[in-house]
Each structure stands twice: as structure tokens, then as C-alpha cells.
Design goal:
CATH superfamily of the largest domain: Aldolase class I
Bound molecules: iron/sulfur cluster
CATH architecture of the largest domain: Alpha-Beta Barrel
Number of helices: 15
Number of domains: 2
Largest sheet: 9 strands, mixed
Strand order of the largest sheet: 7-8-6-5-4-3-2-1-9
Helix content: 40-55%
Radius of gyration: 21 Å
Low-confidence stretches: none
Strand content: 15-25%
CATH topology of the largest domain: TIM Barrel
Order of helices and strands: EHEHEHEHHEHEHHEEHEEEHEHEHHEEHH
Shape: globular
Amino acid sequence: MDPVGVYIHIPFCTKKCNYCDFPSYPGLEGIFHSYGEAVCLEIERIASEYGNISVQTVFFGGGTPSLLPVPILSRIVNTLMQRFRLSEDAEITLEANPGTVHREKAAAWRELGFNRISLGLQAAQDRLLQLMGRIHTRKMFVESIEILDKYGFHNLNADILFGVPGQSLEDWLETLDLLLQTKIHHISAYSLQIEKDTPWFKLQKKGELPYVDESLEREMYYQAIETLKKFGFHHYEISNFSKPGFECRHNLKYWTGKPYIGVGAAAHSFIRDERTANITNPALYIQKIKANVSPMISSEKIDPEEKLSERLILGLRIIDGVSMLELEQEFGPEALDRHRAAIERMEKRNLLYFDGDMLRLTTIGLDYANQVWMEFL
Ligand code: SF4
């Protein structure tokens, strides 16, 4: 089996942010311990099912993994290391909320083997952070970076949001500027979508959420590309920028169709051409694992046609594009022929272009990526 990426989902947060529809829940401190034990048991089961798995990347995401007490985190990391074969240069990421970073924790994380921290900043203005329902301030973010740097973390990501209700272009430029002044090596800049079943969705329906102008939202994106490029950040994926050599190796696995194993409530896996998903509710997840029942709630075999569509869609998220030669070698020329007419249509509309055998989104294509994906479905 190809080396895999492992994703561990930690579905706990101190407080729910107003825009968030991720599977994460506040007030579940009482089940932290049993959740950690369940995750360890699931790792052991996966290891006995698949044998000696070679792992190149590990990503603790959530939720707020940095909220987990160190002994629980340590149990999970040790189980991973005992049951899987971690490469010596494995990228091991922990997502952290700046409101939860302390010296003792940072020292312990480093000791456990984490070598990349992904911090959720979202915005540099306390007024916006408060509106979003975030638990941290700008100052806490800056202090987190200082602590993490001091304790030996030299691969740091910050997540930021644009198109946020009430956010001006000046606010956005100030957020970028803050990151350029700190020791950040990677930036994920996402356009905020107001998702169903969130407090902001309800406010929007009542007409009580400030309107986000679409052209302002696009302007923020272009400004990010231009500004970050000037300061040595490589725009390598639609929403991701990094200093050379600091691309997120774990997420690159998703975009290039490589296998990954998800552990924990709501975690997804893609392995041996099968996609599976675990039950979302953390308490039910624990119950199932304890009862020796699989936590999986769905599984789907991906046929070659679907796999090729996904490879095109995900591969085009990468700015360098997707190698048509590689796809042809893997899937055969006939399979690719089914997409040629759509590719030509999109070339004519200036959404896609070829650079050698690499098929890429154009600058206009970056704005209309959803339309491109639809053509490949
Ligand atoms: S911290 Fe992240 S996962 Fe938790 S509620 Fe906020 S946005 Fe969602």
C-alpha cells in the first residue's frame, strides 16, 4: 500500500463560533478521556486490518485539538507511533486556537513530536473576532506565535477569512500585514461561506447580517495573491500560500488523490479506492467503539470514471495544475477522451489552459472554479 496520511478528528471546542458548521461541540470536557481511548482503539483496529501501514503525514484537526489535555494527546500519538510506521521526516500537524496556547503545552507538543502548528487567526481585528464569536484576541495570536517559535516550532500556518460580514478591505490588508510581520510560513486564506444551521445563517435570513459585496470579496482575494507573492509566499493552491518548502504535505495528499485514513467521529477515509465516513456524534462514536462495532456510517467504492473526475477537480485546485500525461498513464487515453470536449470548451472560455502537459486554471478560472468542477462531474 502507498504511504498514507492520517487525519485524527478532535470534535471539541470551548465555544461555537457564529459561522461554524464543522462537527465540533462545546461543553464535552466530560468525555475527553473516553474519546481519546476510543480513538486509540480505532487506530489499533485499523492497524490490525491493514497491517504495517507506512505514514508520511499526520494531521490533528477539529474542532480544537489544542484543547485536549496533554496526557490524552500523548496516548493517541504513542498509539499511532506504536501501530503505524511513521517516516522519519513525517509532517505532524496540530490545529490550535490561539486562546489555548501556553508555554507548558507548547513544550509538551514539541516533545510529543508535533512539528507543524496550524493556528486559527481568522482576522486581526478584535472587533471582528468578537463578532465571529472567537475566543481569542489579536494579542493572544501574536503571543502564541512567540511561544511556539520559542519552543522550536518552525513550520507555522495561520488560517484567515475574507468576505466576512463587516470586514473592510483595510481590515483585510491589516490581517495580511500582521502575518507578514510574524514568523508564519504558511497561510490558508478562505472565503467565508455562510452555512446553514449557523447563528450567522439565521441572522442573514432575518436581514440582520451586514451584506458582503461580491466584488469586494474578489478584490480581497486578488490583493492577498499580490501582497503575499511580493513577500515570498508561493500561491500553490487556490486558498493556500507558503514559503518555499513549507507546502502542507498532508493536504497535498487530498489534492493529488493519495490515500488517507481518518480516525475519530466524523472522520473520512479514502483507501484502496473506497471512501468511508465515521458517525458524527462523538458520544455515539465512543459507544460504538466500546461495543466493538464499526463507527463507519457510509462506504462507497469509487469506480475509475469517478476517480478520474475527482483527480481532475482536486488536481486543478493546485496552481501548477494537473499532469494530463500522468492521468493518461493511470486511466488510459479513452477515459481521458471523455473529458476532452469539456476541456476545449473551457479553454475557449479562458477558464483553463495548458502549460506543456499540465492543465491549469487561468486567473479567470480561479474565480469560476465551481463552474469548472461542474463540467468534470
Ligand atoms: S474554533 Fe474552529 S471548529 Fe471550533 S467552533 Fe470555531 S471555527 Fe468551529
